[in-house]
Every structure is written in structure tokens, then in C-alpha cells.
Amino acid sequence: MYKNHLISLSRRFYSTPNNSILSVYTNQNLEEKIKIQGWVRALRKLKENIFIDVSDGSCSKKLQVLIPNVHKPQGLSTGCSITASGYLNLSPKGQLELNAENVEVCGECKVEDGYPFAPRKSYTSDYIRQYLHFRPRTNKFSSLLRIRDYTILAIHNYFHEEGYINIHTPILTSNDCEGAGEVFTVLPENQRTLKNMAKPGVSLEEGYFNSKVFLTVSGQLHLEAAAHSLSKVYTFGPTFRAENSKSRLHLSEFYMLEAECAFLNRIEQVTNIVETLIKTVTSKIVDRHNEDIEKYKEQEIEFSWINKKFVTLTYDEAISILDKNKGKYNGDFSEAKGLTKQHEHFLVKYCDNVPTFIIEWPKHLKPFYMKNCTSDSSK
């Protein structure tokens, strides 16, 4: 009985193809009969009709649906999920609108029982974090997820077109690529399993894998080995760092893009790859998701730099600029500590807000595996 009931529901809701709201706005085939599924973001009741704004997450736009009062389904409210079918037309104001012939509530939303978001009202990030399971329903966060999704796709497309091979480097590894000890140790929670796996004379920390194992901090070493066979490789996966920081600049978990390319002899070859990647991916995001980017306009986002050549400074040139502009940035420069985030922000601003490469660093400020400059053994 239960299985048959599920099958009948499936046929009821999915017997005809659904239209995403993105495809509705893209094609705009007026007077075409369509069916959409989504969530009610706003509801307005008039004398003869009900107007609802429906979102399905496929784009930042909502589709207005007109429902005659006589066809109002039971349980219709802000936040509920619906299936609506009818004909696509333009409203008297020229707005795309679905004149619904049939509307069914798939899942009710009891607003009076504590649904935390009211229509057409903005909420602070701190408030939204109290309801993480509803966060994707907010305009800003859903826009962020769509931008992130397309960014990942654009990155993969770029590397694929450039002939790179995508390598899935291990998440569990015995390597600490950075050598800083900022790793998370991996052990089974089940202590009985751990003790049974451990060989005589081996510590419990090494019992399960026969060595200490960590969550990866980088796939670099694996990529370097693969590049010696495949020439051009990259990985884009989860990375973990155990750092004593709670700022947004130091994350315990994040996704990191890393690439290795054999037979490069000059630093300019590397910077050209990075510049082309950033410009190509950013241009595609702006073209595809400009409306989602608009959700962040209060942060004054502009992209004129896409059409400009990235700036390249040597470390000595960067220090000279900072020395000549003391008092225009926060904090003093220290040769032992190198450049801080404030110094970097100032240098980019000094270079007309164009992304800036700094090359030829002092050896003591860079990891041991960095290639030495041929012109100066101290760099």
C-alpha cells in the first residue's frame, strides 16, 4: 500500500515535464502551457484573485502566479511548496505571469507555528544563522550558492579546455605538505576497533593505518608526482587547517584549487596562467549571474580590472612603494614578518585596484620547496 501510494504521487506530480523558472524567463514562450514547482515567497490576496511569487532556486527571479480565488488550494501560505500549471502570459504591467489552472500544495508551511522569515523583509546574518536549514531560502545565500556552483563549473571548464587532467588527491594522508603541523589527526571513534587493529609495539595513534594520518592540508605533493607523467594536472577539493584563529581569513575547512604544469621555466608563464584563469572565470560569472551579484551591491563590487593587464612587482619594488607612502596604510612594515594584509590592500589600491603579483621574495619568507631566483641566491 505505501509503495503504491508513492508511485501514484510520482505520477501525479511528474507525469508531464516541469519547467524551471530560469527556463521560463529564458524562453518566454507566451501562451504556452507550462508546469512549475517551487516555494511561495510572497502571497497577496485581492477580491477575485490571489497572486503568489514562486521561487525554485534555479535563478534569482521569482515567477508571479495568478490564482482565481475559487481555485485556491487548501494550505496555501508563504513558505509552502506547490505545483502550478497553466498558461504563461504578460500581466497588465508587462510582467511575466503564470495564469494557473491548477495549483496543488505539496508541503504546507505553518507560519503561525514559528516560520522565521516574513515575506519582503530583510534579516541580519546573525539572525539567519539561527536557522541554518532555512538559510538557502534567503535571497542572498541562494545567490551565493548559485555563484559558487557556476564558479566551480567555470574553473573545471577552463582547465579542461587548457588540457589539464583533474586529479582527486587523497583527503586522508600521512603528508603534512606545509610542514607547519596545522593538521587534524584522523582516528576511528570506536576504541575497540582501534585496539584490535594496532600491531604490537605500535601506538594507538598509528594503529589503524600503521602510521599517523591527517586530513589533507594540500594535494600539492600528489599533483607534483602526477605532473611528471601527465604534464598538466589540477585538483579542486576540500582542505583542512588546524589553526588557532576564528577569522574569515583562517578556515578550518575550505575548498582549494591547486595546479601543476611541467616544463615551465619562467615565473611569467605561471602568472599568465593565473591571470587568464581569473579573468576567464570572472567574466563568465558576471555574464551568467549578474543578478545574483547585484545582491551584494552594498559591498561596491566592480569589474573594470578584467580588461586591464595584471600588475607585477618585485618584492623590492613593493617595499619601496610602502616606504614612500608611510602613513597611508595601517601598521608599520617589518622585514622579518614581510607583507601583512593591510600592506597587500594598499599595494592593490596603489596599482589602480588591479590584481597584483609580487615576485622575487626573500628566501626566508617562503616555504622550502619554492624555486630560487636564478639572478639572486638569497631570493
Automatic annotation (TrEMBL):
Pfam families per record: tRNA-synt_2 (PF00152), tRNA_anti-codon (PF01336)
The keyword Manganese is assigned to this record: no
Keywords in alphabetical order: Aminoacyl-tRNA synthetase, ATP-binding, Ligase, Nucleotide-binding, Protein biosynthesis
Superkingdom to which the source organism belongs: Eukaryota
GO BP terms in the entry: asparaginyl-tRNA aminoacylation
Annotated CDD domains: EcAsnRS_like_N
Protein's UniProt keywords contain Translocase: no
Example of a GO MF term: nucleic acid binding
Domain Aminoacyl-transfer RNA synthetases class-II family profile positions: 154-379
Gene3D superfamilies documented for this protein: Bira Bifunctional Protein, Domain 2, Nucleic acid-binding proteins
SUPFAM superfamilies recorded: Class II aaRS and biotin synthetases (SSF55681), Nucleic acid-binding proteins (SSF50249)
Any one cellular-component term (Gene Ontology): mitochondrion
Protein name: Aminoacyl-transfer RNA synthetases class-II family profile domain-containing protein
Source organism of this protein record: Ignelater luminosus (Cucubano)
